[in-house]
Design a protein that fits this description.
Strand order of the largest sheet: 1-3-2
Number of helices: 2
Largest sheet: 3 strands, mixed
Shape: elongated
Order of helices and strands: EEHHE
Distance between the termini: 40 Å
Helix content: 10-25%
Length: about 80
């Protein structure tokens, strides 16, 4: 066990104000707990880089929630 622990979470959305398609809660794809680590590790994403860096530095990761929707109109 590491002497450091970091809680991670992420919610992201790219809003296109010209889109007529509203973004709804159901448009997000939530992931929870270990599923976040499994899905994002080794990816060229913000969350993936953060996870990889924490692992490289032997810091314990406590994943909570990660969700994102495809670019669309305002939420």
């Amino acid at each position: 066990m590491s002497e450091y622990r970091v809680v991670i979470a992420g919610v992201k959305h790219e809003t296109n104000t010209f889109s007529t398609v509203k973004t709804k809660l159901k448009d997000y794809s939530p992931r929870y707990g270990q599923e976040i680590i499994d899905f994002y590790s080794g990816t060229r994403t913000e969350l993936g880089g953060f996870i990889d860096s924490l692992r490289e530095n032997n810091i314990e990761i406590i994943p909570t929630l990660a969700a994102g929707a495809t670019p669309s109109g305002p939420i």
